[in-house]
Amino acid sequence: MGVSDRLRHPLVAVAGAVLLTVPWVASALGGLVEGYGEGTTVLLAGLAVLGASFLLAWGAETAEKDVPRAFAIAVLAVLAVAPEYAVDALYAFNAGQFAGTPRGAEAANLAVANMTGANRILIGLGWSGIALFTIFRAGSDDDAAVEKRPGFLASRVNLDPDISTEIAFLFLATMWAFLVPLGGGIDALDMFVLVGLYILYILIILKGDVEAGEEHVGVPAYFQKKRRGVRVPIVLALFAYSGLMIFWAVEPFAHGLEVLGQDFGIPAFFMIQWIAPLASESPELIVVAYLVNKARSTAGFNALISSKLNQWTLLIGTLVVVYSIALGRYGTLPFDQKQAAEIWITAAQSFFAIAVLVNFNISIREALVLLVLFSTQVFLEFLIVRDVVALPLSSYELLIAFTVIYLAIGAGLLVARRQALTVLFGRLATTARSALGTTEVARTSD
C-alpha cells in the first residue's frame, strides 16, 4: 500500500476528526481554558464541535446496518441538540430556584426565548439553507433527490415518503404548541402530550425493519464491514465520544460567541435567543451538510426534521420538569406576553414548513420564502430592540404580524395540498398499525 493509499484510509479520517477535539480536551483538562480569551475559546471549542460532528455522523451511518435508519437518525438528532437541552435546562432551573423574584421571571423568559430561537433557526436557516445547498451542490454532481424543473426557481429536493411519520408527528406537536400560551405557562399537561408524542414516535420507528439502505462509502462503509460484535461497540464509542465532546464544548462555544457579540453592542437577551442557539445547533447543521455533500440529501433532511421534532416535543415538555425540581414542588413554568408571542410565531413557522413538506418536496422558491421570512423578522426585531429606526410596531406586534403571515401562507398551501395531507396521515396510520401488529406477533410467539 502506497503513501497516498494509506492517507486515504478511513481510519486516517477518524484520527483527523479526533485530533480536532484534542486541543480542547487538553486545554479543558489542564485548566487552561480559564486563562484564554474569548476568541481562543471559541476557536478551540468550535474545532472540537466540528470533529465531534463528523464522528457523530459516521456513527449514525454505521448504525444503519443494525437498526432502522429512522431510529439511527433520531439518536443522532438527540445527541446533536443535547447542548440546546442543557442550556435551556439551566435557565429553567434558575427560574425555579428564584421563583417569585425578577431574576426568576427573567430566567423563565430566557428559557422560552432560547427554545423558540433554536426551533426557528432550525427551520429558518437549517431547512431552507440545506435545501438550497442540496440543489446548488447538484449542479456539479448528480443527486437523485434533486429534480431540475422548468420555471422560475422551480427546481426542488424530493424527499423519501418514509419521512411521513416524522412530518405527521411534527404536525400534531405543532397544533398542540398553539395551545401552550393559553395555559399561562408550560405545565404538566403540555409535558404529557408532547413527551408522549415523542415516546410514541420512537416506539413506532423502533419497530421498523432494518433497510438495505443506500450504499455507504468511506468511514461508515469500512466499519459496516466489521462483524457485528466489533461494529456495535464502535458505533457506541462514536456516539459516546461525540456526544461527550458536543455537550462539553458547545456551551463554552456559545458563551464565547455571546460575549464577543456583546462586545459589538448586541443586547444580551438577543444573543441568548439567537446567537447561543445558533452555536448549539451547529453540530446538527454540520452533520446535515456532511450528509448532503455525500449526496445523502434524504438522510440529511431526515436528521433536520427529527431534530425539530425532538426539540418541539422533548425540549418543551421537559422544561416544566426541570423547573419543578428546582422549585421543590410542582409548578408551571411562567412566561410573559412577549414569550407567548414567541411560541405562537414558532408554531406558525413550523405550520408553514410542514405545509411545504407535506407533498415530500421543497423547491428553491419555498426555501427562499422560509429564509426571507425568518431573516426579515429577526432583522426587524433587532432594529426595534436597538431602537435604530422608529418602526410603527412594537416587538410583540411584529411577532403577531409574522405569525399571521406564516399561518396565512401555510393554510393556503395546506388547502391546495389537502390530498397530500390525507395521504400523509394515511401513511402514518399504516405505519402505526404495522408496528402494533409486530408487537402482537411477538406476544403470540411468546
Care to describe what's here?
With 446 residues, the chain is an all-alpha fold. It has a single domain, classed as NCX, central ion-binding region (A middle domain of Talin 1, Up-down Bundle). 76% of the residues lie in helices and 2% in strands. The chain is built from 17 helices and three strands. It has helices at residues 3-7, 10-29, 38-63, 69-80, 82-97, 102-137, 164-177, 188-206, 218-224, 228-263, 268-280, 282-293, 297-327, 337-357, 364-386, 395-416, 418-445; strands spanning 146-147, 156-158, 361-363. It has a three-stranded antiparallel beta sheet. Helix 5 runs antiparallel to helix 6. The longest helix has 36 residues, at 102-137. The chain starts with a helix and ends with a helix. The relative contact order is 0.16. Residues 439-446 have low confidence and may be disordered.
Question: Any idea what the CATH architecture is?
Answer: Up-down Bundle
Q: In percent, how helical is the residue content?
A: over 70%
- Quick one: biggest sheet? 3 strands, antiparallel
On the 0-100 scale, what is the average pLDDT?
Answer: 84
* CATH H-tier superfamily: NCX, central ion-binding region
Structural class: mainly alpha
**Count of alpha/pi helices:** 17
Relative strand content: under 5%
Reading the helices and strands in chain order gives HHHHHHEEHHHHHHHHEHHH
Count of β-strands: 3
Radius of gyration: 22 Å
Q: How far apart lie the N and C ends?
A: 52 Å
Return the domain count: 1
CATH topology: A middle domain of Talin 1
